[in-house]
Amino acid sequence: MRKEIAVFNINDKSYEVILTPNVTLAELLREKLDLTGTKCACGAGECGSCTVLVNGQPTFSCSTLAIACKDKKILTIEGLAKNGELHPLQKAFVETGAIQCGFCTSGMIMMAKAFLDENPNPSRFEVKEGLSGNLCRCTGYVKIIDAVMVAAEMIREGGR
Amino acid sequence: MRSLKPFDYFEPATIKEATKLLSKYGGRAQILAGGVDLIPRMRKGKIKTDFLVNIQKIPELSYLSAGGRKGLKFGAMTSLHALELSQDIHKLYPVLHEAIHQIASVQAKCIGTAVGNLCVATPASDVATALMALGAELMIAGPRSPRIEPIEKFYVGYLKTSLRAGEMVTGVSLPSPVAGSGTGFFNLLRTKGDSAKVSVAVAITLKNGICQEAKISLGAVAPTIFRATKAETVLKGQKLSADLISKAADAAVKETQPITDVRSTAEYREVTTGILVARALGKAVERAKA
Hints:
Structural class of chain B: alpha+beta
Shape of chain A: globular
Largest interface: A-B, 34 and 31 residues
Order of helices and strands of chain A: EEHEEEHHHH
Largest sheet of chain B: 4 strands, antiparallel
Helix content of chain B: 25-40%
CATH superfamily of the largest domain in chain A: Beta-grasp domain
Strand content of chain A: 15-25%
Strand order of the largest sheet of chain B: 4-9-5-6
Number of strands of chain B: 13
Mean pLDDT of chain B: 96
CATH class of the largest domain in chain B: Alpha Beta
Helix content of chain A: 25-40%
CATH class of the largest domain in chain A: Alpha Beta
Strand content of chain B: 15-25%
Strand order of the largest sheet of chain A: 2-1-5-3-4
Distance between the termini of chain A: 44 Å
Order of helices and strands of chain B: EHEHEEHHHHHHEEHEEEEEEEHHH
Radius of gyration of chain A: 16 Å
Distance between the termini of chain B: 53 Å
Oligomer: heterodimer
Low-confidence stretches of chain B: none
Shape of chain B: globular
CATH architecture of the largest domain in chain A: Roll
Largest sheet of chain A: 5 strands, mixed
Number of domains of chain A: 2
Radius of gyration of chain B: 19 Å
């Protein structure tokens, strides 16, 4: 297995990394770059906690090879806040109390970001469908859905 | 979390390059499309691979043609989500839209491909069940000249396809729906997001109430997805009454070879196959008349 020097574009910053092809995107983020906001739970693409955006598409970073993402734009939870100000989704999760243990939160927020980018004015039912690939073991779903509805409104009113 | 075992990695730029690599490494190579199924199975050690051929960088595999008179075509790298969003598919092939839409995980649909789903060859694929009722054909490239395979012939056994050494599926084509045709899709799941315990898709063509053409495709009730041809024969040339639909449903049940597993008992699979076939035929008649 050959090692390779690859350049990654993560949260609009460029990272040069030496890696082997069997490194997953989640391993690259957490272990090589210390971007530990992305969480890994099931490792099998079932729970959604490792969700990041690759070229805008919500992606299981545990089931994606890092090397396959080297020409793509990667967005993680660390890239959402701008100039010290939280993203509306982050604000809404805090204000609504949509966080219990917090382990699913970054995956939920990244999935919600991709969902609202595609559907900025969703119904509650559409939010449920949009987040159906993300599990919350604390079962705090009601407040998570509340938070996404609040964030959608904040974004529509120009909060970014 | 366990890391992936080492492998050599390739990013071919053309189909020809990809099939060359697949021919060279044979059974020791795996194709990486979306990776939704492959990477977790590699991590669990269920798939061992020495060579990984990533087909994501092959531009000629990412397309979705308009569903005109020539039918509809999509490529091996076209994501399930792209198909789900297609208005042509929603309008012309509603059962394919339904089969994709009910898949719970949005991420799996955004990175996962329909062709990848087909090539896993699980008998529980709702997408494959829908595509079989729609008369899908697979476009296959390999060391020799490209070939076209009807989806029924693609599945030769449990998790087994007719792909030969060095071959890969490059895309899927669907015939354009004829006048008077209607389709229906129903499945049963333990919970949303689980694999189907029974999956049923049907397509019929009616002329003056008489059934001209019938396709009944059954998933998760045999080692492969298959067409219930005896049940189809019950319908062809006949007036589609409630009584005839129930006879066809009974015939379909007799063609199943269900097993008992973690998702369902064989008996339950049999009973519900009949119910879902009848329900899907009812829906197809309703759509054919609309």
